[in-house]
Amino acid sequence: MSDYTISRISPTDRRGQRQLTELLTAEGIRKDGSLDYTCGMFDDDYNLIATGSCFGNTLRCMAVSSSHQGEGLMNEIVSHLMDVQYARGNMHLFLYTKCSSAKFFGDLGFYEIVRIPDQIVFMENRRSGFADYLKKLEKDHIPAAGSHGAETHSADGSSPSCGSDASPRTAALVMNANPFTLGHQYLAERAAAENDILHLFIVSEDASLVPFSVRKRLVLEGTAHLHNIIYHESGPYIISSATFPSYFQKDEAAVNESHAMLDLTVFTQIARTLGIGRRYVGEEPNSQVTGIYNRIMSEKLPENGIECVIVPRREFGGQAISASTVRQALKDGDWDLLARLVPETTLRYFKSEEAEPVISRIRAAGDVVHY
Fold first, then answer.
1. pLDDT per residue over 142-181, tens digit each?
2. Which residue segment(s) compose the domain that 73 sits in?
């Protein structure tokens, strides 16, 4: 144990924040924009020599000054951050690290979930955490025999069929639904119509303007007429773009590519467990981020035996319907536009008193279009 002290670096601590940025930069790490706790280890002259941060139940932005490496300081930083997390009630912890550092964190009790060679390793502090998640997915409720296809039709008008000698056509759809729009509904209807079983994963991280509890409710209500859907909360393994770590990548393009690769590596294992042969995604002509994501998905999924189906977006007034446009309508109080962009179930929620805190949050946000 060193004689150095560890203390929190407040967002208002200008000297501490300056030293933090300098240390991270020197160690080839960009300061992550998503941090809710940062600590620093200081020498006798109050110079920052090691640091680490948290966001939610993840450990992030950990670094030790090159002049103090080999002194075991990272062990103390990680131990401190884990104590902070346990005090918060977060017992299941995750971290992202460079491939070269994975063994070090393995010695501290973290286990590899997936890795992207030469880029990033995703780890957790439970030996069987991801395996247990996959087992839970297998146990989730399966639609009753005969229900899939009973009220569903494929694109050519024929009914999907999974006879006794054929495996059911099984697809997946991942959505954040911030909030649930007619575009989301159209995508779910298309995927449900063309397959016997649709696994719909709702991103459960609470990093969106619309809380997860509301997003989940609106997805369930807006797809209640489809009878071959199995719903899943994404849990901590399907990572949203809002919480994906950006601090190892040199620029935003590299961030987006790493996020897509990590997500697809995790999803491939989920697909193997559930027998998923297709993944549906909505086309996003106006988003460079989604464009990169869809490109990588269309390249990598087929390599793993999974068809990637990119569905043209439903439009209104010549423009693709998007959650961003819906949030802007809520921010502007444009109820006429909103009624044309969302299902009745979503509209009814936002017109209720229950939605007032969520609408207030959206109106108080600066940029709701790219959030």
1. 543 344 433 333 334 444 544 445 789 999 999 999 999 9
2. 1-91
